[in-house]
Amino acid sequence: MSFKNKVAIVTGAKQGIGLGIALAFAKEGCRVVVTDIDQKGAEKTAKRIEKLGVKAMAVACDVSKKEEVDLLMQQTIKRFGRIDILVNNAGIYPFVPFAKITEGDWDKLIDVNLKGTFLCSQAAAKQMKAGGKIVMISSIASLVGFEELVHYCASKGGVNGMVRAMALELAAKKINVNAVAPGAIETPGLSGGMAADAKKQMAVGIPWQRMGKPDDIANAVVFLASEKAEYITGQVLVVDGGWILR
Ligand SMILES: NC(=O)c1ccc[n+]([C@@H]2O[C@H](COP(=O)([O-])OP(=O)(O)OC[C@H]3O[C@@H](n4cnc5c(N)ncnc54)[C@H](O)[C@@H]3O)[C@@H](O)[C@H]2O)c1
């Protein structure tokens, strides 16, 4: 796969799945704009990429704020002159029982997971002059229900809908739009505070008998962002070790 001269933006790339995706692109020789709400975290990831001999830039950006997203795109164009790939990875998933979700909880989660994905995609697509690839990080929670995640399931179901509708509109510009829907992946956000026993317990329910790693997701993202996936658009690729097959 050739990512020579390409530029990828990865949101929420301080840690977890976003960090894995940013490093995977760098290993393919792709220049990476590492962005996160946490500036120091983004800088740390960018430094790791530069150690691989690949150019990277760290930009602080809250994906739910239009001015910050517009600035992210401007800074990317100023530094690298182009945007080829956008990975909408930034997301939050606070567990709250349905009856206790406040209006504020709902608005915050939808702002980050759904509006953030919309703002970044619209702003990046404008700059994809020679075609491009947009990959969303959805979730198996877009396809099956999870207790205490009603707002999250709604947001990721929304992301899948956006993938299909955007893929239709952006086909004329040769921009592929797809999603990867991860199962349970070991990240600071999900398993950071989990005891080893709880992780083992979770693995028992997964046909592949283990939780996923950020690399499992990054490999799928790199494929969807490559020329090998040129004729694939509007799809949601489940990467979950078989969890939702039962
Ligand atoms: N870990 C899993 O099992 C799993 C499963 C399915 C889907 N996902 C999805 O994968 C993505 C990454 O999850 P993770 O487990 O790596 O999470 P994580 O909490 O470990 O990391 C998320 C990153 O996003 C950043 N972020 C949060 N709000 C942001 C905002 N408003 N703007 C910019 N950056 C922001 C955080 O600072 C953090 O670096 C999310 O979209 C999540 O919904 C994760």
Automatic annotation (TrEMBL):
InterPro entries named among the record's database cross-references: KR_dom (IPR057326), NAD(P)-bd_dom_sf (IPR036291), Sc_DH/Rdtase_CS (IPR020904), SDR_fam (IPR002347)
MF GO annotations: oxidoreductase activity, acting on the CH-OH group of donors, NAD or NADP as acceptor; quinone binding
Ketoreductase domain residues: 6-191
GO biological process, one term: fatty acid biosynthetic process
PROSITE patterns: ADH_SHORT (PS00061)
UniProtKB keywords: Oxidoreductase
Annotated Pfam families: adh_short_C2
Similarity comment: Belongs to the short-chain dehydrogenases/reductases (SDR) family.
Protein name: Short-chain dehydrogenase
Species for this entry: Candidatus Uhrbacteria bacterium CG_4_9_14_3_um_filter_50_9
Organism classification: Bacteria, Candidatus Uhriibacteriota
